[in-house]
Amino acid sequence: MATNRTSARAKGNFWPDSDTYARLVDIVTQLTSIAVALGTGVLAWTRNAGNTILAVSTDLVGIGVVVPLSKLDVGGPIATAHALKTGANEAFTAGDSWIEHDCGANAICGLPQAATCPGRELTYSKVDAGAGTGTLTPFAGDTIEGGGAVVLTTQWDHITIRSDGGTNWKQLACNIGGGPV
After folding, report:
1. Is the dihedral of CA 6, 11, 17, 19 positive or negative?
2. What is the C-alpha separation between 10 and 3, in angstroms, rounded?
3. How far from chain centre, in Å, is Cα 170?
4. Conformation bin of residue 40: beta by default, left when phi > 0, alpha when psi is -120 to 50
5. Can you give the pLDDT at residue 47?
6. Domains of the chain (ranges plus CATH)?
7. Cα radius of gyration (the chain)
8. Exposed (0-12), middle (13-18) or buried (19+): which is 19, by Cβ within 10 Å?
9. Strand bridging mode 72-74 / 61-63
10. Residue 10 pLDDT > 50
11. For strand 33-38 and strand 41-48, is the pairing parallel, antiparallel, or unpaired?
């Protein structure tokens, strides 16, 4: 069934032909920002150095939900970056959320500076069954729960922490040696 473009336009819709659509896609891919008024709020999209930033002026953003009830309301599972590291000296990078460390003999994994990533959650796990340890080390001047490094000694030991945005990583969950730290 053919689309009646005249009646579609009259209802406030626009159905572009394939040439117009291709030109629109080309224009959108070259844009660096778009702002759209949405009732009392404004939806703004910006492409910056390969990153896409979405801001909603009502301070609530929803993904997969019609009416967000929190700053970020996600109506589905969230996937985070996971990495298996095998070196003796490793570090969390900007792209890591969860590191599984095959520690070998003894290994160290460094944390980023807490102040550079406020609210960020990280999980560190020792996955090998060897006698070596995995040591999670805070950035110079930072702490983990007010203390220093955390040592994982047993396979499947893990700790999840969150940056307070200052100089401390707060423990959210852990299993070290079969129990909490």
Report:
1. positive
2. 13
3. 18
4. alpha
5. 60
6. 5-74 (no CATH), 82-175 (2.60.120)
7. 24
8. exposed
9. parallel
10. no
11. antiparallel
- The CA-based angle 114-118-123, given to 5 degrees, is 70
Q: Which has the closest alpha carbon to 144: 169, 119, 108?
A: 169
From residue 11, how far is each of 14, 15, 38, 73 by CA, in Å?
Answer: 9, 11, 19, 32
The mean per-residue pLDDT over the stretch 164-172 comes to 96
Q: Which amino acid is at 57?
A: S
How much is the pLDDT for 45? 59
- For 96-135, the pLDDT digits (tens) are 999 999 998 899 999 999 999 999 999 999 999 999 999 9
3-state secondary structure of 21: helix
Find where tokens 């492409």 sit: 47
Question: What letter represents residue 15's amino acid?
Answer: W
| Residue with token string 């967000």 | 68
Q: What is the 3-state secondary structure (H, E, C) of 134-180?
A: EEEECCCCCEECCECCEEECCCCCEEEEEECCCCEEEEEEEEECCEC
Name beta bridge partners: 110: 91, 137
Let me know: does 129 contact 74? Beta carbons within 8 Å.
no
